[in-house]
Amino acid sequence: MNHGQAVDRDHLLAGQRRLDALGPRLTGSPAHHAVVEEVANELTALGLEVRRDSHTFERWDLPATSDGLRIELPTGPISVSSAFPYSGLTGPQGISAPLVYVSARRPKWSAAKGAIAVIEVPHIDLPRKLLVSEWGPIATDETLRNPVLSATLLGPKLDKARKAGVLGVIAVWHDIAPDNALGQYLPFTQPYHDIPAVWVAGDEGRKVVAAARSGQRATLVLDATLHPGTRTDTVWAVSPGTSPEETILLITHSDGTNGVEENGHLGMLALARHAVAQPHRRSYVFVLTTGHLRIPAVSKHGQATSTWLEAHPEMWKGEAGQARAVAGIAIEHLGALGDTEDTSTGSYALETSPEPELLYATSREVHDIVAPLWRDIGAGDRRIVAPGPVIHFGEGEPLFERKIPAVALVTAPQYLLALRDAGAVTHVDLDAMVKQIESFRDLLDAFDETDTAAFGPVVSRSVFAKFSALLQLMQILSKAKK
């Protein structure tokens, strides 16, 4: 793939269809392992030496059948939207106990000791300015909405429930369309809790709340399984440059819930093919990180790529005898199409136009390099943002925390963490994917040609900005709880 030459659309389409056929690639699962090996083989075929960083952990796996994930009330069965990942397990018989309603405002988990707790979780909009910063004027009235945020910030505290003697938890989504709630693998960043928990939504959620308020009994079945000693690998390779004392890091992750989350390796491999086809000044380091969906198993702090960075300072840190990473590129969620939700009617639909991109640049100078090269995918929003005062989403975060100038694509439609069965057609726009990969290719070339000092300093969050944003966030969350 030479500079300016069109990306091989058929190759991308075939790769996307392989992802669709595999279905969810949860960390350490056979489907996940298949993706890792495919990427390793392709990098090897390009003549690159593939290296591995292995991790071993106890994998929690979803029930194998729909009968293994259910709620039974005296009035009949309740449809479960999804399981709470790494919550716990019940065995095939489930647990039968009274339902006890727990207020979300000040949860008194001890009131549900020996029972199944029912707690409501609002799906909320958050001000955009608390989550991302702008290189241009701030649009203060804009909001962002994603179940990832709602579940992470407002979901039940399972550790407290377990310590209080609660047998299980039913989290009832509030103000979310049932089709949007279906299959959401959330929250995905928590440790194993050893207490079964599930999500329900819509009319099914209202039935559960009514049953809890009237003191009915229920049976909760979450027939998940534990697999100790599961191995999962981060694979990486280097395309040597003529000046190997400087590197450019190219990051994505291998585990995912559907064909958008994560298809970033399709772009990374396209850039690898580009790299080996022509000489380049800096060495390019291609990293396919594992553990994005199981961060507690691979990382003590930060996103999963943090662990690779800590293990390989020689590839980026720039101290004596080490190469220095002058820039980084993080590629996630290529070609994501949008979705719409109407909570007043409970409707949810996938769109045919691309989701507005969430594209980070972590210095003003990087922004200025990206702006003229990034192609318009027709999403109606081409802003290139800076990390917000509280968070940097995605696997570009570890680069930001280590002040490596970087650009990161982490577009986030609401279905991003929703599980999709094997064979389901992915909600991807191939034209948008091609344009994004071509943009990354041109950025890589530009980064290789840019003098080190010209990348500029990475923008840091001030203590005041963090405190102010966190205070506003706490106030919003407090109001959201019933």
Share of residues in helices: 25-40%
Count of DSSP E strands? Answer: 21
Portion of residues in beta strands equals 25-35%
Structural class: alpha/beta
Shape: globular
Mean pLDDT: 94
Low-confidence stretches: none
Radius of gyration using CA atoms only:
23 Å
Biggest β-sheet description: 9 strands, mixed
- Total of helices: 14
Widest sheet: strand ordering: 1-13-15-14-16-21-19-20-8
The CA-CA distance between the termini, in Å, is 55 Å
What keywords describe this structure?
single chain; 482 residues; alpha/beta; nine-stranded mixed β-sheet; eight-stranded mixed β-sheet; 21 strands; 29% helix; globular
What does this structure look like?
With about 475 residues, the protein is of the alpha/beta class. It is about 30% helix and about 25% strand. It has helices spanning about 10-20, 30-45, 130, 145-155, 160-165, 180, 200-215, 265-275, 295-300, 305-310, 365-370, 395-400, 430-450, 465-480; strands at about 50-60, 70-75, 75-80, 80-85, 95-100, 115-120, 125, 130-135, 145, 170-175, 195-200, 215-220, 225-240, 245-255, 285-290, 325-330, 335-340, 345-355, 360, 385, 405-410. The strands form four sheets. Strands 1-13-15-14-16-21-19-20-8 form a nine-stranded mixed β-sheet. An eight-stranded mixed β-sheet has the order 3-2-12-5-6-10-11-4. It has a two-stranded antiparallel ribbon with strand order 7-9. Strand 2 and strand 3 (about 75-80) form a beta hairpin. The radius of gyration is 23 Å and the shape is globular. The model has no long low-confidence stretch (mean pLDDT about 95).
